[in-house]
Amino acid sequence: MSKKSKKKLKKKDRQTSILKSAPNSRKSSKKAAIKLPADRNGHSEAKAKKGRLVYFFGDGRADGDGKMKPLLGGKGANLAEMTRIGLPVPPGFTITTEVCTWFNAHGKTLPKELDQQVNDAIVRIEKSLGKGFGSLSNPLLFAVRSGARDSMPGMMDTILNLGLNDETVQGLVAVSANERFAYDCYRRFIQMYGDVVMGVQTLPGEHHEPFEAVISELKQQVFPKRPLNEIADTDLDASSLKELIVRFKKLVRERTGRDFPSDPHEQLRGAICAVFGSWMNERAIVYRQKYNIPTEWGTAVNVQAMVFGNTGTESCSGVAFTRDPATGEKVFYGEYLINAQGEDVVAGVRTPDPVATLQEKMPQAHRELEDVRAALERHFHEMQDFEFTVENGKLFMLQTRNGKRTGVAAVRIAVEMVKEKLITWQQAVSRVPADQLSQLLTPIFDRKAIKNAEKIASGLPAGPGAATGRIYFNANEAEAESHKGKVLLVREETSPEDIRGMLAAEGILTARGGVSSHAALVARQMGKVCVCGANALHIDYHKGILTVGDRIFNKGDFLSIDGTSGEVYAGEVKTAPSEIVQVLIDKTLDPKESATYGLYAQLMGWADKLRRLQIRTNADQPDQVANAVAFGAQGVGLCRTEHMFFEGDRIDAVREMILADTKEGRENAVAKLLPYQKGDFVGIFRSLNGLPATIRLLDPPLHEFLPNTKEQQAELAAKLNVPVEKVTRRVAELHEFNPMLGLRGCRLGITFPEISRMQIRAIFEAAIEVQKEGVKVKPEIMIPLVGFAKELELQVQLVREIAAELTKKHNVRLNYLVGTMIEIPRACVVADDIAKEAEFFSFGTNDLTQTTLGMSRDDSGSFLPGYQSLEIIKQNPFATIDTTGVGGMMKMAIERGRKTRPEIKLGICGEHGGEPASVKFCHQLGLTYVSCSPFRVPIARLAAAQAALADAS
Ligand code: PEP
Ligand code: MG
After folding, report:
1. Ligand 1 atom having least distance to the Cα of 640
2. pLDDT in tens, 520-579
3. CB-based burial label for 927 (10 Å; 0-12, 13-18, 19+)
4. Which protein residue's CA is at the shortest distance from atom 3 of ligand 1?
């Protein structure tokens, strides 16, 4: 920072102390009571200005506003917006996300112009507060925080109390008349700055964060007779804190070889660089990958005047939600810690108190908070998650953002806000992330099993649902063990470094921390079951044991947790289906008795009014089809007939067919399969009750049906009464180097037409039988892996022949279609030719991705994660459609297919059909339907409605 501004600061030393003059009484906080203006709907004229890197907010004015999230990040934009609507926001400034991009592209340096703009903003803050940055008599201190466009809780870095050094701390002592408070701020600053900026962090093999280890050592020396876990940070007095500061500085010197910086401007520069740099730290990258946040977005840096929740018992820091983020209930929900700074609440170091108790302890602040709560919802029309500080009785707002919530809460809040006329029903549909609906379908504990289970502890219900698994106490181990079976991650408290273990675990259990602790926030967002703050638990990381009273659990033992009630149980407790599943699938719960079902049904009803895409299901069993229809499927989009070949004894007939040397031999074997196949289709047509069913002829390579091991081959030979050599030889003949590119798909039906004939006959005979029962049927026969029009032509000929024969024989009319899968690039190129025979196209995007990218859908796991971290591919293309490559192929096929047959029916049946971003893409392409697994049908319904809404806007 420039010398000029340093000079200016000296002058500021004479200015009056806001802390001294700041009202330390209820009277003054009354005077400062917030006047809440009428909602202005957040409209403002603020616009990004060329060359402006820094946006100021304070004193009711702001350069930015709530709509500028891409440039100012979510936090910066909302700080500006709260300032504009008159909420009590300490002044500050936001450095834009563009600077972050510049920083990372220019070898982690800052643009030249930034210094001056930062200094100008500092001067405005100094004027506003009458304090000076670096002032010895009345120092201005800053909080430096990250803030990306979408919030990434805990993933990046924060530094509080910046500006303190051995001299300015004296100024803080003087203005606050509170020595302990001043030194507490100073030690916190060294601790955060030392960690985040100077990299003094836990080394491999260490179990405790190094600064925390120094604190523990000092606590034990100061209070030798008290157990360590009973000594609070607040028990350390000013002289102990001074000693702590000396030890902290020593630690920094030992670990980094450098002295802790004392120049506030150098401190600020270091903090800004560290926050920008944290955009590229490992946990932020993992988080971005999971939530598809582009690296280009970058983070903003918010520098804001400190307010203090740790001046004594008249001060506190808290986090609150305008509604309960776990259940969605409209209650004021949150927690706070008296005499603490904000990070203490989120870090879960002490378990905070529920916000309701603030009513007794600080009634005025509580009233103001209630006003703020209402004002925020009125203004943002969304559930808000906000941070506040009460400094000597006066309320300050430090942040607000749309609150993360569970799937259950998302549905409840959206539906109830419509009733409260805060939003429209269309907005409600757009508010619930489609993926989150899966949380409404997740299991709960079986009622009987839970009655008999041994409850060992309880904590805070932080992420709903039921989870059971083997317990592990560190994230790496939990991740490794998760490949062998279900695991629970059990920690004293979690930190952002644990993200991989949290992702891998079924559920998360912590001994400390509240409902807004890191564990709780992240678990909710991931839809993980979570219980936190179960303080009866004592974890010994060294021994790998968990003690609860006189019970000891070793790592690898089973525990069960209920994230809806907060209970913890010993052992493995049986789970039961969710209420929605009980109503729709099991039919064991009356819909009127389930409030959750009522909310779900309302939302889905609205979604169905909006969507244009139809939703079908990939299912090949009558019960799967029935489940999918209960979830709202409008037909079967893919029945993989090969799955039926594995059931019961029929695999023997399949194997006999494969081993047969002659056409007659094959026909004999195939004839044995016909009644089975027909039975399957009868069941499916009945379950569909008039809805269409796309049934695909046999697709996988034949070797998949033959036994691999010598013993199994001998067994089969004996069963079929053939020499074992014959079986072994056939297995060898069918071996393929690239099975996915060999004798499969329509190539099978062309090489062995008797297989196709049997399947076509089974479909039509079943259709005729069910039709005769008075049930409508709509079979759609689908030919897989077509690349040449002639392939389709040959298979369609068989379909037409058999249809003609059977309709004549039974004297019936059959309403059926015949079409093809589009799953290899050649099919896309010659789609106009293929459409001459095909009445429909169904995109097999699993194979189309594999063949377009030349990547094996089975083996790409070995390099895809690496490709994703290098951002060669942003998302797993087998989960989310690669819109440019595979999507480009689909576009070509659609255009060319429509040239020949303008009314051609178009669908998708690859796994992408149930993934929200891909559903949106399919909507944009103008497909008729998407098809997905039964439990993803609700997700696809909602995603399709959201895609239609996006069109409208
Ligand atoms: C596909 O390839 O997308 C498809 C649905 O077929 P399968 O997954 O059975 O190959
Ligand atoms: Mg396929």
Report:
1. 9
2. 767 766 768 899 889 899 999 999 999 999 999 999 999 999 987 889 999 999 988 889
3. buried
4. 844
